[in-house]
Amino acid sequence: MPSGTDDRLMQPIATFGLIVASAYAVLFGVMKLATARRWIDRSTAAFWIFISPWVFGFLLFTAGPMVYSLVLSFFDWNLLDPASFVGLDNYQKAAADPLLGQAIKVTLLYAVLSVPLSTALSLAVALLMNTKVRGIHFFRTVWYLPSLVTGVAQTILFLWVFNPTYGLLNGVLDVFGVHGPAWFNSTFWSLPAVVLMSLWTVGGNMIIYLAGLQDVPVELYEAAEIDGSGRWQRFWNITLPQISPVIFFNVVTGLIGAMQVFTQGYIVTQAGGGPDNSLLFLVLYLYKNAFEFFQMGYASALAWILLVMILILTALVFRGSAFWVFYEAGRPTKENRVRTP
After folding, report:
1. Is the dihedral of CA 267, 268, 269, 272 positive or negative?
2. What confidence tens digit (pLDDT) does each residue in 245-281 have?
3. How large is the angle between the packed helices 98-129 and 296-320, nearest 10 degrees?
4. What does pLDDT average to over the chain?
5. Distance from C-alpha of 132 to C-alpha of 37, rounded to nearest angstrom
6. Quick one: average pLDDT of 81-107?
7. Residues whose CB is less than 8 angstroms from the CB of residue 27 and which lie 6 or more positions away in sequence, other chains included
8. Would you tell me how many other CB atoms lie within 10 Å of the CB of residue 101?
9. Domains and CATH numbers, the chain
């Protein structure tokens, strides 16, 4: 490769290094001046210096791209020609796009099916793994290991499992005299197959639930047992309220993850999106508009529509948590809220 080409390849790296070095030079200068003038003490200056890599990374790789995508959503840009301002045209196009409606329906249906199933199964497994039997650490490891195989590797694995001709699942169904469906080749069964695939990683949430279960005070179970409470009563009145913050955390993170599912819909069929767009998830539709149709402005508008959807759903979950999430300090009300001077 000619040396001139090497120099051109190194220019972006050198520019980025110069920007980072300049930013740290300014930061150190400001911190030195602030400590010399006694605006802040040395510990505060050290704090800002130590968290500066995260702050710079957040501004450069998260906040910056988000602001840029918001601005880009008001433009029409195909990556080749100069961007042209179109105002709210991309959002008006989204309101009349039937494929966007299909993508939202598929994504919401997947979230409604996968999140409760994953929550219930991971909690049930955690209850089993919380028992004191010989070899329990081995079983916990076995349940957790599948969660390490995710993304493309997981999808390729389940392409074999759900194969309609020689797949493992249809082979098991044949043993019981049941003719298995076409799964990913079926408009009806493709989404349930992806939902079943999502249960492969319940081991990750199982570990979190297990930590919550082991944090429940034993004295509560002992007192309930003395009062004559049965196993189901102890579970309903002690275990669930005590671990409800853990359930709430897993539900919120699971919902956010379900709204951003992409790999399954992209991998299972060559064209992406499944038969008759039955796996056209919103992030997949966003990707197709950006990198197949080169409509970067419209794709940015779809990204912000997705963000608003996630914010609304998360806010609803937070709002509803007041009825079923319990904390040791109790839920704040107008009567018991502490007034601070």
Report:
1. negative
2. 999 999 999 999 999 999 888 888 766 677 888 899 9
3. 40
4. 87
5. 61
6. 93
7. 48, 49, 52
8. 12
9. 3-72 (no CATH), 93-323 (1.10.3720.10)
